[in-house]
Amino acid sequence: MIRRRRNVPWIQKNSRLIIGAIALIGLILTSYLTITSLGGGEVVCTGEEAGACGSVLDSAYAYPLDPAGKTGPPLSVFGMLGYLTMGVLSLAPLGISSENKKKLRQKLEANSWLLILALSFAMATFSGYLMYVLAFELQTACYYCIGSAIFSLSFLIMTFVGHDWDDLGQILFVGAIVVLVTIVGAIGVYSNVNAPIANQETPVAPGEKIPISRPNSAPQPPTGWDITTTSGPAEIELAEHLASVGATKYTAYWCPHCYDQKQLFGEEAYNIVPHVECTPDGLNGEPQKCEGVVRAFPTWLIDGEVYEGTQTLERLAQLTGYTGNTDFKYTLPGR
Predict the structure, then answer these.
(1) Where are the domains positioned within the chain?
(2) Overall average pLDDT of the 225-254 stretch
């Protein structure tokens, strides 16, 4: 008796390649976000939600190891590891010859599908939690976050339809455990996301500076976040010097790094610093003045030279030839 060979659906023949391709795109995306975050730059985002992208990616939820202090590796680093792992699990068995090492390949394929199933459940569940945060906590949109969530959901769908599962109960059992663990873990990680930050005027050791706090919520037009630091004599003197030499800061109310700059000065000193709001819906917005000058926020224009990113007050003093009081109170976290 001759057995007819069962036709394997196209989707199952190519499911590993499809999952691998999605993982590669996700790896590129999260690598870009990681490099930009660690480099202190601004992500590229256009449209009405341009400001929201940066604020979300620099919110407390973007720092899972220290949400309250917003220090440590950004969330995109863990996304990179997830996509890299998914890519390896899906593509590695394909590199083994099915003719010479058939049993080894079959064993790797069987075991890797279980790992792919577990990882896809975890990524989809965590992405779903972050979509909830985006919609109900931060109440804004982030195209990068939504795109990553779509990739994670695609993994789960491809895992279901791209493999001939013999036991539906196995899928449900693995899925239930992974979903439960992921939800509990996510809630635990972000349990202190809205915890109050220590008073900025808490005494520190002599010679040490106070790390500035960073916002845990989405910025609200037209001013973004309230400045919570207070200026000292050195900050005020430097601000007056910057004004006298014509140094100008180009800013956007939704920019977290611009807010860092405000926090370094303190409210009183920052109000002295010449600055231009580049967003139309910002307070006294003058976007026309930013054209041809600004590529990233914040941008400083000093003596005809452009300096991008948050500048320490020591650096601003050096760039402008300031020789006055340098007993500045604040520093960036992790410095």
Answers:
(1) 10-189, 210-331
(2) 95
Which amino acid, one-letter code, is at 295? R
Type of residue at 40: G
Cβ(83)–Cβ(148) below 8 Å: no
Confidence of residue 204 (pLDDT cuts 50, 70, 90): low
The class (CATH top level) of 10-189 is mainly alpha
pLDDT tens, position by position, 70-90: 778 999 999 999 999 999 999
d(Cα 151, Cα 145) in Å, to the nearest integer?
10
State the Cα angle at 213 between 135 and 236, rounded to 5°: 130
Return the CATH class of domain 210-331: alpha beta
CB-CB contact of 199 with 318 (8 Å): no
Burial 241-269 (b: 16+ CB within 10 A, else e): bbeeeebbbbbbbbbbbbbbbbbbbbeeb
The pLDDT of residue 52: 65
> What's the pLDDT tens digit per position in 18-45?
999 999 999 999 999 999 888 877 787 7
Q: Which of 43, 329, 44, 41 is nearest to 213 (CA)?
A: 329
DSSP codes, 241-285: HHHHHT-EEEE-TT-HHHHHHHHHH-HHHHTTS-EEE-STTSTT-
